[in-house]
């Protein structure tokens, strides 16, 4: 049974019992050993053996008691000594056990028996036999849950794993070991389950890119890094995702834009997004500029403009965003004036009311599907809502009308939900028909339940909570919407959505009389 770390009192009792003395006498020594071992029972035992071996802890036969040199013990760098002691003990294990522990240490602090067997090219039975000496010595432990005891193992402590890893003599040998493990795991990955295992596999293969010479293997591994990065990004681990995308880019050949365009484009695009999410703004912008110079279609360029709009919004570069959005919309054949006059705004409002006069239901059955151009246009327009709101109210109204007309009359819940949110804002805030605006907001809420796009949900809930719900219901309802906007915005990595929603959440709570501590 694995032992939990001892506290200082337990450590004192352990030392006093071991040295057969009263606890008051053992207290100074116990305090030093507790600080140096963190109360780990295994390390306490190892340290006592080490001190005895070096004569710093010795038995006084005439007086029949243990005695120790406190000053010398306190001065010694015990962590290094324990490491060397562990290394020496590991080296005394049978060769087969040492060999298998090296691979186990490369896998990690916790390892699966099946994975270890594959990495060592042994049967499970052979692997179990080779692990037995390490189990007897207490270097490794079976899984904590009885259901996994025969399948999962872990090193007793990080220092034990580090000592086992040190058995692999050189850095080159370590890289070769990781490469071998990664290749074998990739070959033996269960069909249909590769996506679940790919991050762990690439953690090994990315340790040794210099040893991967075959061009076709490098391209394949670049694609696997793209998959691993997307897995990490979906788990909101943006820093981890970035390392996979960067590793994938490093594996590409010089002519990658010509020979492997789609893979190269996707890796650069994902990398730019994660650089932004990690607040590496300049690197994100450089990647976007490179993408714009290499993109082959207008639709791809629009996607890049959307990313640039998001980056700039996070840095509050609103005026630049209006220009970028206009350039992107031009590629889709849509002209958006930067400073619309009153007549233009009134005309667009009337046109929107006429086009959407029969829209009042969340049932989208029978409506035409959105075209790719419509989707890109709505995405671009949504990315400009913040910039328009901060710089030009008339432009904000115009943007809202275009989002509404482009998205509501189509069979797409994700876009229609945002369209209804925008239309409810126009109906209430602009036209003053608050009850109808509220009814349209309920349609938007019903549509939000029909899709799982976190970014779209974050935007829609932010609109509903900050601009719409308070018209006809209590302000606390809007607080719930804003909290949902924060939650969905975080999941989507939309920093600006989260920031805006949090700002409105605080402002509305103050207005509603919440205590300052809330």
Description:
The two termini are 45 Å apart. The chain has 27 helices and five strands. It has a three-stranded antiparallel beta sheet. The chain has helices at residues 8-19, 23-37, 41-53, 70-75, 78-91, 95-107, 113-120, 124-137, 158-166, 171-187, 194-205, 215-234, 238-250, 256-259, 261-277, 281-294, 298-314, 318-331, 342-355, 372-383, 385-391, 393-407, 413-430, 434-448, 454-468, 475-492, 495-511; strands spanning 57-60, 65-68, 110-112, 140-142, 152-155. Helix content is 70%, strand content 3%. The longest helix has 20 residues, at 215-234. It is elongated. α6 (95-107) packs across α9, α10 runs antiparallel to α11 and α16 (281-294) packs antiparallel against α17. Among the domains are: 8-76, no CATH class; 317-447, no CATH class; 452-518, no CATH class. β1 (57-60) and β2 form a beta hairpin. The protein is mostly helical and 518 residues long.
Features:
two-stranded antiparallel ribbon, single chain, 518 residues, three-stranded antiparallel beta sheet, 27 helices, mainly alpha
Describe the sheet with the most strands. 3 strands, antiparallel
Rounded radius of gyration (Å):
32 Å
Helix fraction bin:
over 70%
Q: Work out the oligomeric state of the chains in this entry.
A: single chain
Placed side by side, the strands forming the largest sheet appear as: 3-5-4
Using DSSP, what is the number of strands?
5
Given the C-alpha coordinates, what overall shape results? elongated
What share of the residues does DSSP label as strand, in percent?
Answer: under 5%
**Ends distance:** 45 Å
Overall pLDDT, averaged? 85
Uncertain segments are none
Going by helix content, strand content and strand pairing, the class is mainly alpha
Q: Please, how many helices?
A: 27
């Amino acid at each position: 049974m694995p032992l939990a770390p001892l506290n200082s009192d337990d450590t004192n009792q352990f030392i006093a019992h071991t040295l057969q003395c009263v606890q008051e006498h053992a207290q100074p020594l116990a305090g030093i050993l507790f600080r140096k071992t963190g109360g780990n029972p295994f390390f306490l035992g190892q340290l006592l053996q080490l001190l005895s071996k070096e004569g710093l802890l010795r038995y006084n036969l005439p007086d029949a008691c243990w005695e120790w040199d406190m000053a010398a013990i306190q001065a010694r760098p015990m962590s290094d000594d324990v490491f060397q002691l562990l290394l020496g003990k590991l080296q005394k294990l049978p060769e087969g056990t040492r060999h298998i522990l090296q691979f186990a240490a490369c896998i990690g602090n916790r390892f699966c028996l099946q994975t270890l067997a594959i990495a060592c090219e042994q049967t499970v039975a052979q692997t179990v036999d080779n692990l037995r000496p390490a189990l007897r010595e207490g270097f490794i432990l079976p899984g904590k849950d009885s259901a996994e005891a025969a399948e999962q193992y872990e090193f007793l402590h990080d220092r034990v794993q580090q000592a086992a890893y040190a058995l692999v003599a050189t850095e080159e040998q370590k890289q070769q070991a990781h490469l071998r493990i990664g290749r074998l795991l990739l070959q033996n990955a269960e069909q249909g389950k590769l996506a679940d295992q790919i991050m762990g596999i690439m953690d090994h293969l990315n340790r040794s890119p210099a040893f991967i010479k075959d061009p076709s293997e490098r391209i394949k591994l670049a694609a696997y890094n793209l998959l691993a990065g997307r897995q990490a990004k979906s788990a909101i681990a943006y820093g981890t995702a970035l390392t996979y995308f960067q590793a994938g880019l490093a594996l590409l050949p010089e002519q990658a834009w010509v020979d492997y365009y789609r893979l190269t484009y996707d890796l650069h695009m994902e990398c730019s997004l994660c650089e932004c999410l990690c607040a590496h703004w300049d690197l994100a912008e450089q990647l976007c500029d490179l993408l714009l110079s290499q993109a082959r279609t207008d639709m791809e360029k629009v996607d890049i403009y959307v990313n640039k709009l998001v980056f700039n919004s996070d840095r509050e570069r609103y005026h630049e965003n209006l220009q970028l959005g206009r350039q992107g919309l031009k590629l889709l054949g849509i002209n958006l004036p930067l400073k619309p006059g009153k007549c233009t705004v009134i005309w667009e409002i009337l046109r929107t009311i006429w086009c959407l006069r029969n829209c009042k239901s969340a049932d989208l059955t029978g409506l035409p599907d959105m075209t790719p151009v419509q989707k890109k246009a709505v995405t671009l327009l949504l990315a400009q809502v913040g910039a328009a709101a901060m710089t030009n109210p008339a432009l904000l109204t115009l943007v809202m009308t275009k989002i509404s007309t482009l998205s509501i009359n189509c069979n797409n819940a994700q876009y229609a939900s945002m369209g209804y949110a925008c239309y409810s804002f126009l109906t209430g805030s602009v036209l003053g028909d608050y009850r109808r605006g509220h009814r349209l907001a309920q349609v938007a809420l019903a549509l939000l339940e029909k899709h799982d796009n976190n970014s779209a949900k974050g935007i829609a809930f932010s609109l509903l909570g900050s601009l719409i719900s308070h018209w006809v219901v209590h302000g606390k309802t809007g607080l719930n919407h804003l909290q949902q906007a924060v939650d969905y915005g975080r999941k989507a990595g939309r920093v600006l959505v989260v920031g805006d929603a949090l700002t409105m959440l605080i402002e509305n709570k103050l207005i509603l009389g919440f205590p300052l501590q809330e």
